[in-house]
């Protein structure tokens, strides 16, 4: 994916409109900052607008009922912009200056679907179909969403049953938890909203597809002097700041359950007890041929011995207790989150959560010498878990992104 860049950090605000039952208002002149949040762990988008109001916007619209905000911005007009209609969820007063008569306050918005009465109402929901079908049914017929959506195929049809006193989003999360994949061994389903719409998919599917679409999303970090970066077109793929949150931590691995657990299942209907041993998995890798050093070392030590028992209770044979899925996830997650980093980069409106990028970080010799070889541990392909779009609008709009990214082990080959 190649883009035409004008200047690093440059962004065009195409729309920032407040919609109310009594009219509309352009918020661009009064907005000093825009922060928009995405996550593969969240089914909704959140946005915060910092308003410097000297024209009485808050007085004109004293209630937030039925208020929405249209947001649209882009870094390249040849590609689809980031575009959302969000519901105004809250208005928080920050400060008031009597001298210049300016009110500073924050307008907090969430995805319009999430704020619908239908989405917040607890319902009785009978079901007898695949998890993918049920998630689609809840989204389209109960929440009544009109957004684009992708639903990855799930394995098996759930037997006739019913759930009550749950909202549609809670029901979607339930089916996400028990969903099994016919293709990917981790069964790592997520349900989230990105710039394109909704996705119900496995993380392995995101990795498999994301590796094919990295294109020019190759970011470089100057480990010695990251501050010595000028805001020019040639450096717009520079990493401005970086913080490693997790790095092959044995304690983190143990917390996530990667110490070769086994499951013990108790059937309440017939009193049977079944022991399910762990197995070897072949997960989709971010870097072909990569390794997760400590994870693999621990796996070698415990591969012939189950070191932890997980207990599951099944009401009957038809009860969809995801025992094998839980075992798979407890092996998959420590590998997936072998390295977790926070980075800040120049804004790129073509990027969204659930996609992949490549990071190039040179090896460091001593404290100051920068080698040409790439770090085996930290360089490689990463999955975007969370993304914060940050646009400073106090002057000419300046756009950066804060990303939480993860990779599995070290890149080799």
Tell me the total number of β-strands.
23
* Rounded average pLDDT: 84
Biggest sheet features: 13 strands, mixed
Large-scale geometry = globular
Describe the secondary-structure layout.
Layout: E1 12-20, E2 23-26, E3 31-39, E4 46-53, H1 57-60, E5 68-74, E6 82-97, E7 102-111, H2 117-120, E8 123-127, H3 131-142, E9 149-151, E10 161-166, H4 168-178, E11 189-193, E12 198-202, H5 203-212, E13 218-220, E14 239-247, H6 250-256, E15 261-267, E16 273-276, H7 293-302, E17 308-314, H8 323-336, E18 339-346, E19 356-360, E20 362-365, E21 369-374, E22 380-392, E23 398-407
Parallel strand pairs: 9-12, 13-19, 15-17
Antiparallel strand pairs: 1-2, 1-5, 3-4, 3-22, 4-7, 5-6, 6-7, 8-10, 11-12, 14-18, 15-16, 18-23, 19-22, 20-21, 22-23
Helix pairs in contact: 3-4, 6-8
Give an overview in words.
There is one protein chain. This protein is an alpha+beta fold. It is 17% helix and 39% strand. It has eight helices and 23 strands. It has helices at residues 57-60, 117-120, 131-142, 168-178, 203-212, 250-256, 293-302, 323-336; strands at 12-20, 23-26, 31-39, 46-53, 68-74, 82-97, 102-111, 123-127, 149-151, 161-166, 189-193, 198-202, 218-220, 239-247, 261-267, 273-276, 308-314, 339-346, 356-360, 362-365, 369-374, 380-392, 398-407. The strands form five sheets. Strands 1, 2, 3, 4, 5, 6, 7, 13, 14, 18, 19, 22 and 23 form a 13-stranded mixed sheet that branches. The chain has a three-stranded mixed sheet with strand order 9-12-11. The chain is globular. The relative contact order is 0.16. The model is unreliable at 291-299 (pLDDT under 50).
């Amino acid at each position: 994916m190649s883009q035409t860049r004008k200047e690093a950090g440059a962004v065009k605000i195409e729309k920032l409109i407040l919609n109310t039952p009594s009219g509309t208002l352009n918020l661009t002149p009064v907005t000093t900052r825009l922060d928009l949040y995405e996550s593969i762990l969240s089914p909704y988008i959140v946005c915060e607008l910092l308003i410097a109001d000297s024209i009485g916007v808050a007085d004109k619209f004293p209630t937030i009922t039925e208020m929405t905000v249209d947001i649209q911005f882009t870094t390249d007009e040849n590609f689809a912009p980031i575009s959302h209609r969000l519901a105004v969820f809250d208005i928080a007063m920050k400060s008031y200056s009597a001298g210049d008569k300016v009110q500073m306050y924050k307008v907090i918005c969430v995805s319009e679907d999430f704020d619908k009465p239908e989405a917040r109402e607890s319902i009785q929901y009978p079901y007898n179909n695949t998890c993918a079908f049920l998630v689609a049914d809840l989204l389209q017929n109960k929440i009544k969403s009109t957004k684009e959506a992708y639903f990855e195929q799930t394995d098996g049809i759930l037997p006739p049953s019913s759930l009550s006193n749950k909202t549609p989003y809670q029901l979607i999360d339930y089916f996400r938890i028990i969903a099994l994949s016919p293709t990917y061994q981790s069964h790592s389903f997520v349900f989230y909203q990105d710039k394109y719409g909704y996705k119900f998919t496995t993380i392995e599917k995101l990795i498999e597809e994301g590796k094919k679409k990295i294109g020019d999303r190759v970011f470089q970090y100057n480990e010695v002097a990251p501050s010595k970066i000028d805001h020019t077109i040639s450096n717009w793929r520079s990493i401005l700041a970086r913080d490693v949150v997790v790095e092959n931590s044995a304690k983190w691995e143990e917390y996530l359950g990667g110490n070769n657990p086994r499951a013990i299942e108790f059937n309440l209907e017939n009193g049977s007890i079944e022991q399910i041993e762990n197995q070897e998995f072949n997960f989709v890798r971010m870097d072909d041929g990569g390794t997760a050093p400590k994870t693999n070392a621990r796996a070698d030590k415990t591969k012939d011995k189950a070191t932890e028992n997980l207990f599951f209770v099944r009401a009957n044979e038809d009860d969809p207790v995801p025992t094998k899925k839980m075992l798979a996830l407890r092996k998959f997650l420590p590998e997936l989150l072998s390295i977790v980093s926070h980075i800040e980069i120049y804004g790129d409106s073509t990027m969204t959560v659930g996609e992949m990028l490549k990071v190039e970080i040179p090896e460091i010799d001593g404290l100051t010498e920068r080698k040409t070889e790439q770090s085996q541990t930290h360089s490689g392909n990463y999955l975007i878990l969370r993304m914060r779009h940050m646009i400073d609008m106090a002057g000419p709009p300046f756009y950066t992104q804060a990303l939480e990214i993860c990779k599995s082990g070290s890149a080799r080959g």
